[in-house]
Design goal:
Radius of gyration: 27 Å
CATH architecture of the largest domain: 2-Layer Sandwich
Distance between the termini: 61 Å
Largest sheet: 7 strands, mixed
Mean pLDDT: 90
CATH superfamily of the largest domain: Aldehyde oxidase/xanthine dehydrogenase, molybdopterin binding domain
CATH topology of the largest domain: Aldehyde Oxidoreductase, domain 4
Helix content: 25-40%
Shape: globular
Number of helices: 21
Strand order of the largest sheet: 12-13-10-20-17-18-19
Oligomer: single chain
Number of strands: 31
CATH class of the largest domain: Alpha Beta
Structural class: alpha+beta
Strand content: 15-25%
């Protein structure tokens, strides 16, 4: 097909993706070199028609979910996302999302390379500064990045390609239809003459903003989308050249840390030795702030010494005297009632407890701030930078336009960086000191004062008779989840914090994310919240891992009561063919039902969300010789020996990146099922480091791991960032229940066992800098 023909071809009645060849509008912007943007039509706003499910009607999240809401919120400002062609022949794109290890800079580059017919190495993707005009279009969350940017980025790239062809036609004196574009070069099929994109960049530039129409490539024409690609930043990452906030050099910004209270959100009453600490080697400033006492010095080591030397009298925090037991009691009292039980039906009744989990990314909380009298500049990894800019400006008493917020790449997030705690704190410190600061939270700060996934209970009742599930009721009760980041700007951010609005906000998120993939008759899933004294947040899947784990364990129990195989039972009751195909795939590849030794077992689970579905088969070893392994300063416990995962995201832009996302999610799922939690005692968490927090370690990682990316099913991408966590947690929990013969009801399963570590003291709040590294090497 000729290149110009692809641009001008009319919409066909049908296409492989079921959408037809729809035309899109874009803009050529007035600029010195070619700069283009996308405009999306009203058709994109219309949600897909939902077909009725029998006997269970579709729940809210099956008709219109959180991802749909986030995507539709981005459409009005999609035309502000631009691509620029430079004179050296590269395409530059400032991505209005946060790259925190999920690989979106690579997948975005692939979309540009596809429609622009430009090699991947010629694409330059950076992260955009906070841009308030984008409104909802700069929020990184809900597995929404690829879904919401998939069309706008492609439209902008297609506009650029068409404009380059038109410029080449004028320059070569030929028709556009006689030209082809490949690998950044436009060539005449008649004369063989060619021009590079770099040579055409200025000639193709617009002198005024104009609207143009383009047609995007059909899936059958893709040469880049859907192929496995390595990350474009891989070399920088492995050679240590990749820049995070803590790697940036800002003139005058010196290391800064905070002495924090011994209990959650405690307050400073008095400081005995401010002058003494100010006189310590290297220390330049010591000031009281809202969250503690800040110290600034020449090195972080000197800051650690200063923090430890401070003598502070603290007031009680917001979780004063709280423990796991007291919070569990509050949760049970706050549970919404289940409907009355019909005495003529049988039922499965269960209550599950999910303990606090640490929301600490590998990169600790950090930010750089330079606050002046009439301006401020911030550098941090931020998933909601507009909210950060607007709230920091409000706190500093400056107009938002006077606060410049630079988004840096982050070393992990898992929801943590939806909040700008470090950036706000750095700005407060910089203003108080009158100097730029490079703030770093100590790892102990992150565990004891940082964001956590809230403790929760899930009460489930399923009734059944004559081989059918008649009702399924779930009452999920959680310590309040903070949604103070809103959906990307200050209005929803403030609404989520209102005393009468926060629960409504949480209930909306719950309703738009939770769904039951089975035909279980009348289904209700409701949320209740209690206790706002904790620093909480969305930790990679919000409610789904806990809700899905509870549901899948009940599904296993239903299958057992009815004398059915767990896999066959699920297959019978599943609503969706995509889910059934994924379930069949893991059962086939994982050898479901094979003979296994006593104390070992398989578990299987399904999890749909955000127009995607994952099925997970897990095998676990709970035999004494495995659970009794001795590992210094560690918890060994059961070992997941094998995981098979089948994932259908509709269209995988980068299958290799998708596999990596699934691997990470599986490790998260194993961790929160078996070993990773925070122990609350007397108003603080006992865990104070990664040494204490037993995330999935090498000795608990499955030696057999296979990720199957299902063939494209929808022609457009679904959400993948959080997908595997809930599926893996549920599959591992089900395997554990089958291996031990008892349904687990408290997670992680080791939470009530002896700690396995000596808790760090709360005063001083952080440990001394380590000096025994070699002695601790294995």
């Amino acid at each position: 097909m000729e290149d110009h023909g692809r641009l001008a071809k009319q919409e066909s009645p049908s296409a492989p993706d079921g959408m037809g060849r729809r035309r899109f509008l874009g803009y050529v912007l007035a600029a010195s070199t070619l700069t283009v943007a996308a405009q999306l039509g009203e058709e994109v706003l219309a949600p897909a028609r939902a077909s009725a499910a029998i006997p269970s009607p579709p729940g809210p999240a099956e008709i219109y979910d959180l991802n749909d809401m986030l995507t539709h919120a981005t459409l009005p400002t999609a035309n502000l996302i631009t691509i620029r062609i430079d004179t050296e022949g590269t395409a530059s794109f400032a991505l209005p999302r946060a790259e925190v290890g999920q690989g979106i800079t690579t997948s975005s580059a692939m979309l540009i390379a596809e429609e622009l017919d430009l090699p991947l190495e010629k694409i330059r993707v950076t992260l955009a500064d906070a841009r308030p005009e984008l409104v909802f279009n700069q929020l990184t969350g809900g597995s929404n990045t690829t879904i919401s940017t998939f069309t706008p980025i492609r439209v902008a790239a297609a506009v650029a390609r068409g404009r380059l062809l038109e410029a080449a036609a004028l320059e070569l004196g030929e028709t556009v239809g006689s030209l082809t574009a490949k690998a950044g070069v436009v060539t005449s099929t008649t004369t063989g003459r060619s021009l590079t994109y770099g040579e055409l960049a200025q000639k193709a530039a617009g002198t005024a903003t104009t609207r143009v129409s383009v047609t995007l490539k059909e899936p059958s024409e893709f040469t880049m989308i859907g192929t496995a690609q390595g990350r474009i930043d891989a070399l920088e990452a492995v050679t240590g050249r990749k820049k995070f906030a803590m790697d940036l050099h800002v003139p005058g910004a010196l290391p800064t840390m905070v002495c924090r209270p011994p209990t959650i959100n405690g307050t400073v009453r008095s400081v005995e030795n401010l002058d003494e600490v100010r006189a310590m080697p290297g220390i330049t400033d010591v000031v009281r702030i809202s969250t503690g006492v800040a110290v600034r010095g020449r090195t972080f080591g000197q800051c650690i010494d200063a923090v430890r030397a401070l003598k502070v009298t603290w007031g009680p925090g917001t979780a004063h005297g709280a423990s796991d037991d007291t919070i569990r009691d509050k949760l049970r009292r706050a549970e919404l009632p289940l409907p009355a039980l019909d005495l003529l039906t049988k039922s499965v009744d269960a209550r599950f407890t999910f303990h606090f989990a640490g929301n600490s990314a590998l990169e600790t909380n950090c930010a750089i701030a330079d606050v002046r009298e009439d301006s401020a500049e911030i550098w941090a990894s931020l998933k909601s930078p507009i909210t950060a800019q607007e709230q920091i400006a409000l706190t500093l008493g400056l107009p938002a336009s006077a606060v410049k917020v630079h988004v840096t790449e982050g070393g992990g997030s898992f929801g943590r960086k939806l909040f700008h705690d470090a950036a706000a704190e750095a700005a407060e410190i910089s203003k108080a000191m009158g100097k730029p600061v490079k703030l770093m939270w100590h790892r102990t700060d992150d565990f004891r004062q940082g964001r956590t996934h809230p403790m929760a209970t899930s009460r489930v009742r399923a009734t059944y008779a004559l081989g059918e599930v008649l009702t399924y009721d779930q009452r999920h009760t959680s310590v309040a989840t903070d949604f103070g980041h809103g959906v990307g700007e200050i209005i929803t951010s403030e609404a989520a914090r209102l005393p009468v609005g926060d629960l409504t906000f949480s209930e909306t998120i719950f309703a738009l994310t939770q769904q039951t993939p089975y035909n279980f008759g009348v289904v209700t899933q409701l949320l209740s919240e209690t206790d706002k004294g904790f620093n909480t947040g969305s930790m990679r899947n919000i409610y789904s891992p806990n809700v899905r784990c509870a549901q899948e364990l009940v599904v296993d129990e239903l299958a057992k009561r009815m004398g059915k195989d767990p896999y066959a039972f699920r297959r019978t009751f599943l609503k969706d063919e995509r889910a059934r195909a994924a379930l069949d795939k893991v059962a086939e590849v994982g050898g479901w039902g094979r003979s296994m030794p006593a104390g070992t077992a398989q578990g299987i689970a399904i999890h749909p969300e955000y127009h995607a579905v994952v099925a997970v088969l897990a095998e676990i070893d709970c035999r004494p010789q495995t659970t009794g392994r001795k590992i210094r300063d560690a918890y060994a416990g059961p070992r997941v020996t094998k995981v098979v995962c089948a994932v259908d995201v509709g269209l995988a832009v980068n299958p290799r990146g998708l596999q990596a996302q699934m691997m990470g999610g599986i490790m998260d799922g194993i961790a929160i099922t078996l070993s990773s939690s925070l122990h609350l005692e007397d108003g603080y968490f006992l865990e104070g480091s990664w040494d204490n927090y037993y995330y999935t370690r090498q000795w608990n990682t499955p030696p057999e791991l296979e990720i199957v990316v299902m063939p494209p099913t929808t022609g457009k991408p679904g959400g993948a960032g959080e997908l595997a966590v809930a599926g893996a947690m549920a599959a591992v929990a089900c395997a554990y229940g089958r291996a031990t013969g008892t349904m687990p009801t408290s997670f992680p399963v080791n939470h009530a066992e002896p700690l396995g570590f000596e808790p760090l003291p709360t005063t001083p709040p952080i440990p001394a800098s380590p000096t025994d590294g070699l002695g601790r090497a294995y």
